[in-house]
Design goal:
The chain is of the alpha+beta class and 213 residues long. It has one domain. It is 38% helix and 13% strand.
């Protein structure tokens, strides 16, 4: 069958532009990535200073979790969780650093489940993953999949390695991949958001009736 292109929906495109603008605004947020953290930083003794805001902060594993004392973030996935929190519109709600079984095989791969209130947002993450795979910065293919958790009005998605692609990575390789993704996630997502925003704005200008802007 022939694949038919959809007729452009300008109202939908304008909505997409607003959603992309919210993502791009995350780079202007100068506050702490761990929402609600008020632990004074070491050098300046300030509860607002971000100089120590890294996944290596000894408080981050507790502060990034809604129940930090009972369920702190595992250290192996903390950089990726914090990378999502820096994007603001992508709220992580569950994570796992990955675990092996008794034979040393990967029993549970590293993953992060996150909220996204626009279908554009997981698409931006998926594009970032494709870029990293194309650049050979990760050992295997990673993916974003819809993950029904609780209320579907607030859709959740999982970032995880694609273990069905014929690759057989070790847990250490996957954890190294998770760190690489964490290091590049914000930049790649913002770059993709800028590209899509420019395309949408061009489409809106091209189809706007003469005499309007």
């Amino acid at each position: 069958m022939r694949i038919e292109r959809l007729t452009p929906d300008m109202d939908l495109y304008r909505g997409y532009c607003e959603e992309l603008a919210r993502v791009l605004d995350s780079q202007n947020h100068l506050g702490r990535p761990c929402i609600g953290c008020d632990v004074p930083c070491g050098p300046h003794k300030s509860p607002d200073c971000t100089c120590a805001c890294t996944p290596n902060c000894k408080h981050a594993l507790l502060k990034m979790s809604s129940e930090g004392e009972r369920y702190p973030i595992e250290a192996g996935i903390a950089p990726l969780v914090q990378a999502f929190m820096r994007l603001r519109e992508f709220r992580p709600c569950w994570s796992c650093e990955g675990h092996e079984d008794k034979t040393g095989s990967v029993a549970r791969p590293p993953r992060v489940i996150f909220y996204a209130r626009s279908t554009l947002y997981p698409a931006l993450v998926a594009e970032a993953l494709t870029t990293l795979l194309f650049q050979k910065k990760v050992s295997c293919s990673w993916e974003v999949v819809v993950t029904p958790v609780g209320n579907m009005l607030d859709a959740t998605y999982t970032l995880q390695p694609n273990m069905s692609g014929g690759d057989d990575p070790t847990l250490s390789q996957l954890q190294a991949d998770a760190r690489v993704i964490a290091d590049h996630l914000q930049r790649e997502v913002l770059d993709a958001a800028r590209r899509y925003q420019a395309e949408l704005q061009t489409a809106l200008q091209t189809t706007a009736p003469q005499g309007t802007s």
